[in-house]
Amino acid sequence: MQQRFRRALQVPIAAVGTVFLGLTMARAQQPPTPRALPQGTKSAEQPVSLSSANRLFDSQMYPEALAAYLKIYPSQRNSFEVNRRIGWIYLNAERGKIRQAIPYLRRAHQLNPGDAGVLHDLAQSTAWAGLYDESLPLYEQWLRQVPPSATEPMLEYARTLGWAGHTADSI
């Protein structure tokens, strides 16, 4: 009985989903309508610079800062700070985008392997993304850089060991 009821619902729901998807796709394929500016005014889009992106980040305007950093990234791909900040925004300010932080944090770590903050963020992002085989060695490396009296790093490492299924090692 339940299977017949489910099948009866699948057709109308699928049809509604198809129509909705079709409308969404049609809307997404339309180019944005340009807005005419009054004569004598400059374009509303300002050129983005590293300093303006940094100001946005420092003002905690993270979505705007991310957009600015991504816009200048082609010319700043070898910048430790730009990679670190993009990774940090994806890790901390952009919900559901943890995996997007990883390549930027990897690059920042390559550019400055001695930075304990980036190493921690990379270990954390890989753990939260479920990449434990990559995360555990990063945590171990980070633990060698922090003072032995620091308890939070050990707790994070133990928590990640537990998530990875190494419960006996995490105790």
Short description:
By secondary structure, the protein is an all-alpha fold. The chain has helices at 2-29, 50-58, 62-76, 80-92, 98-111, 116-128, 132-145, 151-163, 167-170.
Please describe what this structure looks like.
It is a single chain. The chain has 9 helices and no strands. The chain is mainly α. The relative contact order is 0.06. Helix content is 72%, strand content 0%. Residues 1-44 have low confidence and may be disordered.
Poorly predicted spans: 1-44
Largest sheet report: none
User: Strand fraction band?
Assistant: under 5%
Rg over C-alpha atoms, rounded to the nearest angstrom: 23 Å
Helical amount: over 70%
Structural class: mainly alpha
- Mean pLDDT, to the nearest integer, reads 78
Gross morphology: elongated
Task: Report the count of strand segments.
Answer: 0
Fold topology:
Blueprint: H1 2-29, H2 50-58, H3 62-76, H4 80-92, H5 98-111, H6 116-128, H7 132-145, H8 151-163, H9 167-170
Helix pairs in contact: 2-3, 3-4, 4-5, 4-6, 5-6, 6-7, 7-8
Quickly list its features:
single chain; 171 residues; mainly alpha; disordered N terminus
